[in-house]
Design a protein that fits this description.
- The complex is a heterodimer of chains A (528) and B (93).
- Chain A contains 23 helices and no strands.
- With 528 residues, chain A is mainly alpha-helical.
- Chain A has one domain: Sodium/glucose cotransporter, CATH 1.20.1730.
- By secondary structure, chain B is mainly α.
- Chain B has one domain.
- The chains are: A mainly alpha (528), B mainly alpha (93).
Chain lengths: 528, 93
């Protein structure tokens, strides 16, 4: 009511200047239409997928029938979250060059995934990354430690996406935050519960197409105003807001913070459970390799486009107008769409951003459910003796539990900084999961004790240092100082996790594990 | 014979993976270190609208593509052919 009257008033006073008057925040019919079309199409896909989901292999790994091209798109769809689309565009539009640190950091993990992880993972494991770590080691302790690492990563990542979704939908459609979370939770649960990995994969493919298409259209419309020359756009930004926008600024004032964040982004990608799980959906290691190649290409193109979207929003909308709508700058891309294509284009981009979140949370929930049911229930409690029906039943209950937890935590963490929470999820993945994977795949001498301590200490030291960091101590708890100086702990926790893994392995001895290395190494290259 | 061939293939794969990973780490952290310790250089304009920092940022993305392309090209030809030989030798007694 107040919102509508405010908009009416604003429209009556000054309908001209598009940079100031925005229709963001009022119910947008076109956004609704696009959004419901997306929901209808994806639920249709889920119905089709549900009829094909019979075994655990279908549920967790889409029957291993996804082609490399499809998996490349799905990886891109699983990875490009709202934080990268809305967050980077917002950062670049309000800070200039500094936002590009994220654009590059979020891509450089992919070559590492390709060189070190993708093929061994596909050849050794079955459904989760814990399969790989546990292959030569004692099942129970490794599975429990890996499940802790997986669930910590998944839950932080889920909270970030849920908080982002709630805020986004409130701004876009004028819905209540809590209502928005329930809608996201319900749709995500429907995909995963009934359609498993097959539905999740296709939701991610559709979303990746929409996001890449929408971003490309937006970038082309920006460039059309600058003679299709990106340099003319950057020059216009420098003319309007000073040459400093093309140089590093205050976001990276502390060098060690920049390095630590860079390490989390680079090595975190190679430890994200929902990304690693996607390599099991393709028929073999060669297909896994090719799919990373496609994903790196698509994601790189997307991040290059964020240069144009960010500076485009800076020049065509203006940092002040962007911050007036949302302090964090998250509405830069939708505002840019409104300036360039009016309300219909705003509606389309809003629906794309929403689809983006849905696809990411579905992938996250599925990987969390796999950790709970495949790693903990089947391999720890039932010692590998559970039939397909029981495994599916447990996986579905785990999905429901995670969906409910995600909605509740999303409500609890309302108003938290989304990009920061995502970078924490990356820090946990980089310190808890990545070192254990590398040690168990490549190092003959590693032992169960070593790998488990690496995972446990990696995960918990990250959580502890996050708690002691300035962001929690100063910004959140309003203390005067923080015990730990860095905002992101990866600079300390990744080396710590490796060192602990190596030292504990050297201090313990496991001849059975070392003897198993030759067979495991052969399997890692040749496959079954 | 098969074992020897497999060993050398596994070692080559490992060497290439490590070298390419090291190259990616060097490129990205070179970029981050320049941002952290030489802001004036990164802000210098090469031409109107193009600073050293923006150019290097774009080049980091391009170099990720180039490195993945190098690996995939090597793996699709040499590594896969080597694996095929190892599999064949394992089958013939």
């Amino acid at each position: 009511m107040t919102l509508i009257s405010m908009v009416v008033q604003a429209a009556a006073q000054q309908p001209a200047a598009p940079a100031v008057t925005t229709r963001i925040g009022e119910p947008n019919v076109i956004a609704m239409v696009f959004f419901f079309a997306f929901i209808a199409i994806t639920l249709g896909i889920t119905y089709w997928a549900a009829r094909r989901t019979r075994t655990t292999e279908d549920f967790y790994a889409a029957g291993r029938t996804i082609t490399p091209g499809q998996n490349g798109m799905a990886l891109a769809g699983d990875y490009m979250s709202a934080a990268s689309f809305l967050g980077i565009a917002g950062l670049v539009s309000t800070t200039g060059f500094d936002g590009l640190i994220y654009s590059t950091g979020w891509l450089v993990g992919w070559p590492v995934v390709l060189f070190l992880i993708a093929e061994p993972l596909r050849n050794i494991g079955k459904y989760t990354f814990a399969d790989v770590v546990a292959a030569r080691l004692s099942q129970t302790p490794v599975r429990i430690a890996a499940a802790i690492g997986t669930l910590s990563t998944v839950i932080f990542y889920l909270i970030a996406q849920m908080v982002g979704a709630g805020g986004l939908i409130r701004l876009m459609f004028g819905l209540k935050y809590e209502t928005a979370l329930v809608i996201v939770g319900a749709a995500m649960m429907a995909y995963v519960l009934f359609g498993g990995m097959i539905a999740t994969t296709w939701v991610q493919i559709v979303k990746a197409g929409l996001l890449l298409g929408g971003a490309a259209l937006l970038a082309l419309m920006v460039l059309a105003k600058f003679g299709f020359n990106p340099l003319a756009l950057f020059a216009a930004a420098a003319d309007k807001y000073g040459e400093a926008v093309l140089a590093p600024g205050k976001l990276v004032a502390a060098p060690l913070d920049a390095i630590s964040l860079g390490m989390a982004l680079m090595f975190g990608t190679a430890g994200l459970p929902h990304i690693l799980m996607r390599f099991y959906t393709v028929p073999d290691a060669r297909a896994a390799r090719t799919s990373v190649f496609y994903a790196t290409g698509l994601i790189g193109v997307f991040y290059l486009m964020t240069f144009v979207l960010g500076f485009g929003a800076m020049v065509l909308v203006g940092p002040d107008a962007i911050k007036a709508v949302d302090k964090g700058g998250n509405m830069a891309a939708p505002l840019l769409a409104e300036v360039l294509g009016g309300t219909p284009f705003l509606g389309f981009i809003a629906a794309v951003a929403f689809a983006t979140i849905l696809a990411v949370v579905a992938g996250l929930t599925l990987s969390g459910a796999a950790a709970l049911s495949h790693d903990l229930w089947v391999n720890v409690f039932r010692h590998g003796k559970a039939d397909s029906r029981e495994q599916l039943r447990v996986a579905r209950w785990a999905t429901v539990a995670l969906g409910v937890i995600a909605v509740l935590l999303g409500i609890l963490f309302k108003g938290q900084n989304v990009a920061y929470m995502v970078s924490l999820a990356f820090a946990i993945a980089a310190s808890g999961n990545f070192p254990a994977l590398v040690l168990s795949i490549f190092w003959k001498r590693c032992t169960t004790e070593g790998v488990v301590s690496s995972m446990v200490i990696g995960t918990f030291s990250t959580l502890l240092l996050i708690y002691l960091s300035p962001t929690i101590q100063v910004d959140l708890l309003h203390r005067t100082g923080a015990w730990f100086p860095l905002k992101n702990p990866a600079l300390v926790t990744i080396p710590l996790s490796f060192v602990v893994g190596v030292l504990v392995s050297l201090a313990t001895r496991d001849d059975v594990v070392s003897a198993g290395f030759a067979a495991a190494e052969r399997r890692m290259h040749v496959g079954d | 014979m098969s074992e020897h061939r497999f060993r050398s293939l596994a070692e080559t794969r490992w060497r290439i993976a490590i070298s390419l990973t090291a190259a990616m780490v060097a490129i990205y952290f070179g970029f981050i270190l320049l941002i952290a310790y030489d802001k004036p250089l990164m802000g210098r304009l090469l031409t109107r609208g193009l600073s050293v920092g923006v150019l290097l940022g774009a080049l980091v993305i391009v170099s990720s593509w180039v490195l993945t392309w190098i690996y995939v090209r090597w793996a699709n030809t040499h590594y896969d052919a080597g694996l095929e030989e190892v599999r064949r030798e394992a089958r013939t007694p």
